[in-house]
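Review box. Two proteins, two foldings.
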Amino acid sequence: MSSTTHGSAQDFIRALKASSDPPHTGSPSKIKLAQNAWDDNGFYLPNKGEVIVEWLLTRFLKDKARASDVNPIMDTRYWQLLSDIVYSSNRTQADLTGSARTIKSWLLPILSRVPIAPIVIAFLSLLSSIEHDAQLVLNKLVSRSIAVLWPIAVPKFSPETLLECLAAVLSHLAALQFTRLNETVESLGAIPLSIVSAYRTAFANSSNKRKIYSTFLQNHLLYWIHGMHLNTGDGAHLQEAVAGIYAAGVETMFGVDVLRSLEEGKCDPALKNALAGTLAPNASTLDVLPRLLRSFIQSVRRHKTALFSQGSNRATDNVVAQVQGAGTAFYAMCDELVTRAGNIEPMRIWETRIKCLAIVEEERLHSVGNDPLTQILRENGDTALEALRGSWEEQHAQRVDAAMEIISVLTRIDYDIVSPTLPSIWKRLILNLQAGPDDARKAFGLVNSSALFSFTFLDRLTKAIHGFLTPGQVQDVTKLVLQYLRDTFKEFKEQDKRFTADEGSGARKKSRRSGTTVSVDGHPNPELAAVTFASAARAVGLVVGSLPLHIIPEEACEEIRSLVGDVHSHVIPHALKGSYKAMEAADRRETWAWQIVAAAALRVHYELSTARVLKLELGSDSSATSQLRIFLQHDGTVPEFSVEIARFLLYQVSSDPDQASSVFDNVLHYLERHLDNETSWSGKTHRLTPEAGHKQDECQQGSQGVNAANFMRRMLHDAAFWELPNVRDVFMTQIAIQTASVDQVDVEHLLSYPERKSVHADIATSVPLYATYKTLLHAPAEYLSRSARADFLQRARIADVIMSRPEQQQTEPRLLLVVREFMRRTFMHMGSVEHQGALLFFHHLVKTRLSAEFDDPSLNEFVSVTLDVITMYMSAFLKAAQRGDEDAVVSIVEAFSRFLEIPREQTTGAFQELCLLRFIETLTENYEASQFNERVLSLLQRLYERMSTTSCSRMLAVLSTSAASDLYHHIDTLKAWSRTLAAGRWLQKEVLDIVLEELYASGNGDGNTGLENVVATYIAAAHTLDLDGETS
């Protein structure tokens, strides 16, 4: 391009300085003139780059306030030209400008005249007004230019100017799209980090930090808080930028000059008011408070020498106390702000409280003399305690968890803060009935599933009682819990008496709803009183059974035993008698409350009787035992009462063996009536109702609950069970009885005359037989005697034959699968399949019909199991043929030959074909032709010829409709052909041997080509044979 395009150098300068753009009507725009001048090496202008750069920066500064669509700062052409000129990495520009000066030498005067800070601020402010994709393009151009200009210009900037640049970065980050945050920040390159770094350096050297601090609080704090909530994810640039921004804010707010100006024990009111002002428009301020608290404490500790180094306060203890005092003041401010937030976002408020308390604990702000902090912590404890109200309601679950976390942290900080409120906390945790749900039965379930009755907590409490009670506390604690049991039982009886009086003792009045509620006028509610008594009974058994009696004198131990015996005699018998009377009453009065009380009484009796530390002999009335056995079979007995009755009865028979048999019968009869495989237990403490049994605990989802089937399965896999000879013998005897029903069937008669209808159709299809053999699958074969294995195998074969007969259309396939799996495992353990009628049963297996009721996985499993059993018979028959007893093998080969004579369309998918292929596989892989006599070999020869004819026909049919490359889609045909080739090779067919050796030799070549050659050779040979296999 010639210089005439631009005119003279003076014309070019005048054009750039013209008041209008373009400078003349019809002429190019100024940016195009500048770009052409820069690109035209033939256009001579002294210091051309300097001229154009100064014009660009001046244009940016002059038009920075214009709208984004006409603002040159948002025009990529300007930044592209600026980048082309300045991005030279400080190399000399002699080849471009004729000057040997470096970039810095000529840029510094320009940047002194034209500051770039306002340009950067305008750029960041306008950036969010354009499309995202346009932002990415522009950001890359700007970042290249700023990377060169910023280091040269920044020493001239004041801290206030850099604060404005930082504010522009914060404002821009707050406006970014959440989904493409990392990508946008990465495109900005070093701009955010350069600004943050420059500001931190300038602020550290500033002599007017308080003014900058005030400006930051008044104008930029809200955007700074927004920046702390950016989701940095995996973006390294964004993570580094956010970390730098946070550090810049902390240094501004908690610098030593700012901290030195604070009054002792107080926070800066300006900071407090600024943070409070951000709460209304931005609830996320709550999330920043814990970080600020930690940073404030760390800053005070870092500068403690400068802050607390005067006068007598230089003592170490005083310095620590002053640091704690400063931290307490800031925590008090945070707590006040959280309280002032109200209910903007309740869970965010709870999380902020927890995080702040955790920092108080970690930073060890609390000390014995720190009364202001103690008061605040107690107020937090009261707030958490209040939140436990209504804890039984599902919608308050998160709030309750947060409240419990606060109480836990407070306990770790200082137990004395929480100890005065512990009784109230316990009541909330077990759903104190005055604050709990109106329905007593719902309350009972919630109480038993509460944290205080979890197994983990009870176990830890037991160890704590035994390990930490002092000798002087043992008797007092015992008296306390025993008296509470007396009082709650007395209260229950009073409630029941008043309730009965209100109901009337004559004919039943108007029916009341189950689970009577306590009304505002104080109507009695014995069900709620029963729940209270049940909770007290749990506490008595736990505490008394864990007492460390070994640390107190024997006289004190005797006194405790006497107290326990006295309470036992005044509570337990009366509770049981009351339940008997209520359940036997003719007025059909609701008995739930009395049954819960009786269940709790039985539990206390059992726990006191079995407590090793007490060594008590607590007797029981024989008539009570008889009555309880009756109630165990009663349909109206609640599950909780039934469990305790069973526990009581089983414990009693340990001292009265004569009653053992009848008691076991009662318990097992109850289980047979009420326990099924759908009733499960998640492993958590809760009521034993069908709803609770079927509802799996949330933390147990994905894991299998405990039910009767699982328990039985674990027991059968436990070696300890099988090592109990008496139990094992009784168990196996019962199993034998369950399967004895098929002994009356003559299985050989059924196999010999399959066309005759069986009169035993329903014997082998019974559920007990299926369940019995399924149970035997879990029993180790080593624990079955030889005679027992023989009996179970014989009965399994009989059941198999009956279930496989044509009239058994209703037989479920799973029954047959279980029986055959048992035979497979037992044969594998025995290593032999010899038994009477083995050949007949083998032919029966081969004729298996594949049921359409099988799904694909079950069908594959059934076929695999059946083929495994058949293979064991085949191996046994082949071994017998090796010894000269070839009748079974002859029968098998003849049967397969007859099968091959059946037209193909009638045998498609038949199980016999799979058996034939398995027979050929077993024969060719495990035996040699020389091991069999001529009779067997001749039959095998004819079987092979028939297989050859059949396989050849199938292969021709496949090849006539499919290409050679599609043969793998006919896997059944290929398998049959493969077994045919194997049989021919085994019988020493020379032609096929040669072809196969050729195939083996081409193993590293093209597999499809080798396969096509073999197929072609085989078909060519097949054409020389007639249908009878003779040479034509």
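Next protein.
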Amino acid sequence: MDPKSEGGQEALLNQASAELAPAAMAPSAVAGTPKQYSGLSPLSEENFIDTNLPVPPKMEEEGHGVFHWEIDNWMQLPDRAISQTFTVAGHDWDILLFPRGNQSSEMVSLYVEYKPREATQGKDWHVCASFCLVMSNAAEPELFKMNRAHHRFLAEEADWGFTRFSELRPLVTPPDEETPALLENGRVRISAYLRVIKDPLGVLWHNFQNYNSRKHTGFVGLRNQGATCYMNSLLQSLYFTNEFRNAVYQIPTEQDDPERSVALALQRVFYNLQVSAEPVDTTELTKSFGWDSIESFMQHDVQEFNRVLQDNLETKMKGTVVDGAVARLFEGKMKSYIRCVNVEYESSRVENYYDISLNVKGCATLRDSFANYCEVETLDGENKYQAEGLGLQDARKGVIFESFPPVLQLQLKRFEYDFEQDAMVKINDRHEFPPTIDLGEFLSDDADRSEPWTYALHGVLVHSGDLHSGHYFGLLRPTVDNKWYRFDDDRVVPAAPEEVFEEYYGGEFPQQQTQMQTQQTPPGPGPGMRPRPVSKRFTNAYMLVYIREAKRDSVLCAGAAPVPAHLLQRIQQDREEEERLQREKEEIATTLVVRVVGSEQFARHQGFDLCYFDRRQTAGNPLFSERMPRDMTLAAFHEHYGARVGLPADGFRLWIMVGRQNKTIRCDHPLVGDAMGMTLAQLLQSRSPRWDNLRLFCELRPADAPADFLTARPPAEMSLIHIKFYDPVQQQVGGLGSAYVHRDQCIGDVIPALRSMAMLAPDAPVTVYEEVKPSMIEELDVSRTFVAAEIQSGDILCIQPTAMPNDRRPLARVADYFEDMQHRVSVTFAQLPARNDADVYGGGGAAAGTPEGAAAETPLALTATTKTSYDRVAQWVAEQVGMRDPLKLRFYTVSPSGQPRQPVRRMETTTLGDMLPSAMFLQPTLNPEGLPEYTVMYERLEVDIVQIESMRSVRIAYVGKTVKEELPIDVLVPKVGTAQALIEAAYGKVEQALRALQRDAEEQAVEPIALQFFAVASHRIARLVGGDDRLNDLGSPGASDVVAQRLGSADDAAAAAAAGESQMDTDEARARASAQVEVFHFHRELAQAHSLPFLFTLYAGEPWCATWERLQAKLGMSEKELRNLGVVCGPAGATDPRLCRVLVQGGSASADAAAAAARAGSPVVGVEPSPAAAQTPPPPPPAAVDPAGSGAQLAVSRAASMQSNDGGAMASPPPEAADDMCLWDVLQQLAAVPPGELIGSIGLNHINRASRNRNLHHERAIRIRN
């Protein structure tokens, strides 16, 4: 029987209400008369079950029934009482009663138990039933207590009910003098009401513990890596598009890297979905995208992910047998058109699409969304269309489909931008989609109608949640049958068709309630009370996949393509590797590592202790290290070890080693006698439970030792000590061996023996040290005894020839040697890679100070202590690279990712350790000598470090002939001085950077340049910079608040000539006829500036069309960007829209700015772009401003811009007449400007795409490597 968990029963008890009949009964109006009960009696079986146990909504019952169990003597019941077996709907049941409680003696526990028929049901049976257990007074059944619940009965949970059905005391205590107790005189009636519910899908009330998707549905799911549910639902949809799966299998990927090839990773995912019994992992696929683990926890947009994935696969398919397979399945054609009403003229453009984005807001059904998409707009009145050669004409603008693809992917616009909230929001409105839809009405007249354009629903991708968080899952129909399944990450369950077409439409929850819900719901609001808010559905369809019925068989039932042989081979290798890792894992659980250090390893050890038991142990001096069974006895291991190292069984004994409090590892005691019968695991647990490996020392038998020397414990007064010898000439240390000493013996008495072991002259002076810990090497007083010097077994003594007081050799003493060893590292000095922005302080990485075309210098390897001074390191590197002045070297700490960090400052206290990254952020690798390995980058400088300390770095943004030719330049200037030093340094850096760029472009010469400098604050020009300005007021490290803009381009000269300046012969006349304005970027509001501003020259008498052409060339923007560009003008530094004039409204963002300007009282000057014909020419200048400021002189139609597929507007055709407005005159009238200052500003209204991509996660770019 299943033990009843308190938590599980409590959860059911919270769901099911416990009722006492007297609560619904009213006493008689006459005082003193017996109470009359008017409650529903449990013996009124049909009424009682219909009232208290109705059929759950949207479910059907197999049958229902009732059983009454009459109990006449409660006290004689056993602790576990079982009623007679009764049958309901063909199933056998009984009531299970614990009169003294199942877990508490003060409670009554009551359960319903299912009795399986083993002969017919087997082991995988289940029965779903809702039940009500009632305990009523035997004489007055209207007095009762009941609990109800539902459950999925199965072999593991054959009984279910209420551990805390009721406390015993209230059952036997009358509530008052006139009402009997429910349990009266030991008599009570227990009734069980059951409804057996049909389970057509097989998962009703399933707890999904040990649920096997493959067994129940034939399909498996995909594991969620953290936030990849959106990807899982889309991959399942693509997998069940069999024709697409077959095309993916046929992509040649034999030579691809699994971690870089999206196609190969997708093939593996599809194959595992086909054959695996467990949920499939997608880690390899996301790695092929170039994602790290953090990006797996970030939600990406499904539509964006789908587009990038298909683009990647199409690129991989080019030139193969499946070239064009993606387009054949998912590509359709649509036509954007503008058709004149009164003349025969049409401008149209046909473009391909892979998915369609449909509006949800304002559209009740999917057909309404298509009608909204193809809605025709009339262009008339002031919004007439400028037809080429025909003037302004009434026209109709719209979109019509030329064809739909076999697999139609529809993106429902559940996420939209709310202009009032200035944020993205989710649209949860109700939007119905049919099982089939005929799209023929949305096709053009000349479309192919040989087959019907009827589409059947194949999949629904659902989003549950809001904008910032949520969950995706898919509802798919894998075959042509009407069987739906819910693919929710790693779980696949059947789904009912009504769930697909009703639950995920969105909108509000239905208001109707079942009878049970009505009884448990508080009454509605009374008069004057606020109504309860309507509950919205936050789980709704986000993407729909329809398949053309005429193509369904070929798309879904395409013959299975053979799985590539190399894919099967790789998967088999992966399985073998997984099995090997599993065996190793099982082996680790039953074994442990035993490491043994012997006399040979001790003799070659150059470090502290007897050896290193970790990765510091050098490869040239390996220890014995094997994994042994945990239950192996020490005697068996003793024999095994002797055989492996070639020692007789009586020629050695083992000592166990322990870790002391001072972090050293020393011998503790020999393992003899009873210890030989202990297992290795017991030894480890007894002395070193925190270690994961057993560490032993092998003591060899001396030649003159007695026979029982190794089998008996040493006398208590004898101690085993280990001896090392340090040679200050060779600067090496090594083990001499081990020896036993008496505790009361003087240390000086053993010095002759120590000289003999070290092969020193008998009269050679020696000094004895004790290795206490790496940072504590103490010299011993040889006149003291070993016990007085606290020398015990396992301690290590080190002797060396006595150093003279005037000995100035490095590492003359063993203490110096161990300090050096403790801080010794291996450092590779690599040259800093060349940078396009040259060097901040006159260097340029690999390119600075070296001949052009010379290869990067070979990395240098240095083994030294971290306490080596900065100057000594610089001197050594300078000698290695052939530099005379080490102060012209600069060093960089290298991050764990291999990138250089900030330069290392040179100070008196700076050491090699300051050049290395902190151990907190980097765990270094070890070289074969066991030393930590680091990398430090160095750079050649043109000025020395001392001079650098008295200067500072200023970052200048260089702007070339176009705004997009932006280059960050770092220059070194004095901390105190004038801007003239900055200007002179900037010219040299700019010319150097341009030479490097032109050398890469194989150009021959660098044109002479003229620069103008200005300061920037909050993306606006603060002031022009001259040579007399103070440096303290300019620049800060890493901030581009000083701009150097290139002047004197040929385009400006040509424009000036076009403006009539050929009549001006002198530079003075030219200067008087031109002035500069600020051009800045903003989005929606003038105060929301972004990007880098620049200076622009205006010429007196120059028409606006010529000004616009020069400005367009300076911006270097694409046609798409120019179509969405809004332009305003105003006084210099203006942020008030009332002081500005709108020149052009380019797209919705500019329309918002124009509206704001209009509200502020500023006249809107210009026109909106009108729809273009195919092959649109470059955008013309916007309409002109009336010089008098009185309003707009409209030369073209004010037609609304046609929205392209990406939400942008199409470009405007050329104006009908030339516009002679002069922006010079307009700005001169806006404000009085002192000579030499900026005469005004031009604002460009467009989205800052860099910021937009960072802040809006649903438009975040998905990085997929080809």
